[in-house]
């Protein structure tokens, strides 16, 4: 009995690779894609994960509190310099269609009694961002959905306008359902079918095929050049990857698109925020065809 007991207590041989194999770029990317299947990572996740306590909220992995005593440094940056926050976990819904049709239906889910609306002149021109509370269609002041912010794309030669609505991920499904109802968007325009994420073991097997002993392993594409693995974003924290992400209305011609994790959002706080943006962003030269 003692001999059988010792046999069962023996630890199984570890299947983990050595650190050199784990730290290969191709294996790192595959491992990152696997680890964010359940909770999506933001673009700044690696930076935050090294310095913050991470929490799982609303389908994302977010930085909650710093691991070091940097509260004074953050306060000093907010008051004297510039502090940047990553708000990319906020959801973005894009509405495209004729301006009159958009304003006509959007007026049903907001009220002028609460302040600004989508028809405000300063916001309609695209110069300023607006904020308001949304309600269920024709139900004001009852059945409030939640607060949102919006910004119009400036007018161009086309008669169609674009409107981006930013909202908290906890409110996304209710507001998206209400928007599809008032615009009668039922038919999906595009369906997102993500590619299956290849694990590091499978990628190594693919690299070893056709290579003899003594040759350096390199992953190559069809043209024979080195293929660079890229980070794959499988859906987002509030949307199933196999669901459609764009809907069109046959009656109004309005298209509703889910741009979550496609348009990133950052917040700059501090007196030097505009100086940082001026030094970082360079205006592109206009090219006419």
TrEMBL record:
The protein's organism comes out as Pedionomus torquatus (Plains-wanderer)
Q: Which residues form the Pop1 N-terminal domain?
A: 3-97
This one is known as POP1 protein
Which Pfam family, giving just one, matches this sequence?
POP1_N
Gene Ontology biological process terms from the UniProt entry: tRNA 5'-leader removal
In terms of InterPro entries, this protein maps to: Pop1 (IPR039182), Pop1_N (IPR009723)
Q: Which domain of life is it from?
A: Eukaryota
**An annotated GO cellular component:** nucleolar ribonuclease P complex
């Amino acid at each position: 009995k003692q001999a059988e007991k010792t046999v069962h207590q023996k630890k199984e041989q570890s299947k983990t690779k050595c650190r050199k194999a784990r730290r290969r770029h191709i294996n790192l990317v595959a491992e990152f894609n696997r680890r964010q299947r359940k909770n999506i990572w933001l673009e700044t996740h690696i930076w935050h994960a090294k310095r913050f306590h991470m929490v799982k909220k609303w389908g994302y992995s977010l930085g909650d509190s710093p691991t070091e005593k940097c509260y004074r440094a953050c306060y000093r940056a907010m008051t004297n310099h510039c502090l940047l926050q990553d708000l990319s976990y906020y959801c973005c819904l894009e509405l495209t269609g004729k301006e009159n049709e958009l304003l006509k239906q959007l007026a049903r889910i907001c009220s002028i009694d609460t302040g600004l609306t989508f028809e405000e002149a300063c916001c309609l021109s695209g110069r300023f961002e607006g904020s308001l509370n949304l309600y269920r269609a024709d139900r004001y002041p009852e059945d409030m959905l939640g607060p949102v912010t919006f910004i119009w794309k400036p007018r161009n030669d086309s008669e169609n306008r674009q409107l981006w609505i930013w909202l908290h991920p906890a409110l996304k499904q209710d507001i998206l359902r209400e928007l599809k109802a008032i615009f009668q968007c039922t038919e999906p325009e595009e369906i997102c079918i993500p590619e299956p994420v290849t694990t590091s073991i499978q990628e190594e097997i693919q690299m070893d095929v056709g290579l003899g002993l003594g040759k350096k392993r390199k992953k190559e594409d069809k043209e024979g050049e080195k293929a660079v693995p890229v980070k794959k974003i499988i859906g987002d924290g509030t949307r199933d990857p196999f669901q459609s992400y764009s809907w069109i209305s046959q009656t109004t011609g309005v298209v509703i698109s889910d741009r979550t994790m496609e348009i990133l959002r950052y917040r700059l706080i501090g007196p030097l925020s505009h100086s940082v943006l001026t030094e970082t962003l360079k205006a592109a030269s206009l090219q006419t065809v």
